[in-house]
Amino acid sequence: MQWLKHKLKSKLGVLTLALGTAACSSTLTLTDGTGQNMVGAQGIVTLVNLHPDTGRGLRLSAVNWQMPMTIPMCSEVEIQEVTKKVATIRVKETGITHLYYYHKAANEPFDQHLKRYFGYQCDKAKVAKLSKIDKKGIKDGKPYVGMSKQGIIYAMGYPPPHQTSSTDLDTWKYWKNRFDTLLIQFEKGKVTQIID
């Protein structure tokens, strides 16, 4: 009986080690364009507004759901961990930790996707040069007729590429939730219609 207990304990130890190793191997390195590590680093900010899902534990998604809550552009965050499927992000001002889930709708590797949303430098000077309507949209986290494409990106994040293959297109499709979409139509780079 003692021999059996020892053997089971030994197998459990090997299994625990294997699971721990597998968990570590799924952790991703996230560096900015200059090669600086962003995981656990100070001074990381949101490059666009983020819209967490209040009905699902304040989670964020690479689908970029357009929920009413907004984490403002330029908010300081700590990226605590990044795996192949989830990034753990804590917003410094609120102290709230959000899980940011990867989704195939991102149509790019998760680390590349995250680099478009987080970085060391928020472009406040570029925002200052935008129109009054762009600034209102960014502040409110919403689209308005007359906004520029850059203003929409700052206000809402990027449209999911599996439906909007390029921001050069004149129609961008966002998801408000799993079932409802939002179309933004541009003419000469300005919003002309919002189809809700």
Structure, briefly:
The chain has 196 residues and is of the alpha+beta class.
Question: DSSP strand (E) fraction?
Answer: 15-25%
In the CATH scheme, the class of the largest domain would be Mainly Beta
Q: In the CATH hierarchy, what is the architecture of the largest domain at level 2?
A: Roll
Number of domains: 2
Shape: globular
Overall helicity:
25-40%
- In the CATH hierarchy, the third-tier topology of the largest domain is known as SH3 type barrels
Count, helices? 5
For the secondary structure, the number of strands is 9
Main β-sheet description? 6 strands, mixed
Order of SSEs: HEEEEEHEHHHEEE
What structural category do the secondary elements indicate? alpha+beta
Keywords: Lipoprotein, Signal
Signal peptide: 1-25
Protein name: Lipoprotein
Organism: Oleiphilus messinensis
